[in-house]
């Protein structure tokens, strides 16, 4: 079931491929103000997979010149939130319930995040009044390694009380 967010993304995805990232990133930055502050780039958005990129720029760096730990966590939250948000009906309110972030090693360069939902998870969101899902996200740095491991738990409830 398409919601307002997924309808806009669907229209953007009909534009020429070379414009997708620019349009998606600007739309997301308009909807989520912090995303434009951090410089998150949306590379791919669908109802089952989202890919984001966070360049290692001064505004997101830590004291040693790498991407700050919390900026990496925000990237993970954004990726899972977008793929989740693509599927939550307009009558439901999406909420981040918990985040587990384990830092494995120092991050090198920019970060790429890929979050996915299975067909069963999408069905669960649409079939139940309220619930929650663990949404894994894979974060890799420019070395191709995974410097952090993340799992975000997203919940949905009815907007009507």
Observed structural traits:
single chain; 161 residues; alpha+beta; six-stranded antiparallel sheet; 6 strands; 32% strand
Explain this structure.
The chain is of the alpha+beta class and 161 residues long. Helix content is 35%, strand content 32%. The chain is built from five helices and six strands. It has helices spanning 4-13, 17-31, 33-38, 69-85, 119-127, and strands at residues 41-45, 49-54, 92-103, 111-116, 131-141, 148-158. Strands 1-2-4-5-6-3 form a six-stranded antiparallel beta sheet. A hairpin with a 3-residue loop joins β1 (41-45) and β2 (49-54). It is globular, with a radius of gyration of 16 Å. The two termini are 22 Å apart. The relative contact order is 0.17.
What's the number of extended β-strand segments? 6
**Helix and strand pattern:** HHHEEHEEHEE
User: Span from first to last CA?
Assistant: 22 Å
Unreliable segments of 5+ consecutive residues: none
Rounded Rg: 16 Å
Mean pLDDT: 90
Report the sheet-strand fraction. Answer: 25-35%
Which range best describes the helical content: under 10%, 10-25%, 25-40%, 40-55%, 55-70% or over 70%?
25-40%
Number of helices: 5
**Strand line-up of the largest beta sheet:** 1-2-4-5-6-3
Silhouette: globular
Output the structural class. Answer: alpha+beta
């Amino acid at each position: 079931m398409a919601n307002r967010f997924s309808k806009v993304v669907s229209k953007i995805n009909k534009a020429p491929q070379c414009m997708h990232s620019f349009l998606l990133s600007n739309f997301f930055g308009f909807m989520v103000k912090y995303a434009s502050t951090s410089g998150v780039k949306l590379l791919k958005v669908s109802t089952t997979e989202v890919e984001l990129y966070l360049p290692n720029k001064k505004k997101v760096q830590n004291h040693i010149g790498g991407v700050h730990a919390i900026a990496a966590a925000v990237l993970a939250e954004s990726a899972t939130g977008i793929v989740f948000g693509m599927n939550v009906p307009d009558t439901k309110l999406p909420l981040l319930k918990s985040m587990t972030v384990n830092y494995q090693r120092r991050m090198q360069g920019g970060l790429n995040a890929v979050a996915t939902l299975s067909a069963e998870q999408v069905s669960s969101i649409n079939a139940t009044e309220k619930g929650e899902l663990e949404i894994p996200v894979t974060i890799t740095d420019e070395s191709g390694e995974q410097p952090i491991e993340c799992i975000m738990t997203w919940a949905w409830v009815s907007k009507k009380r």
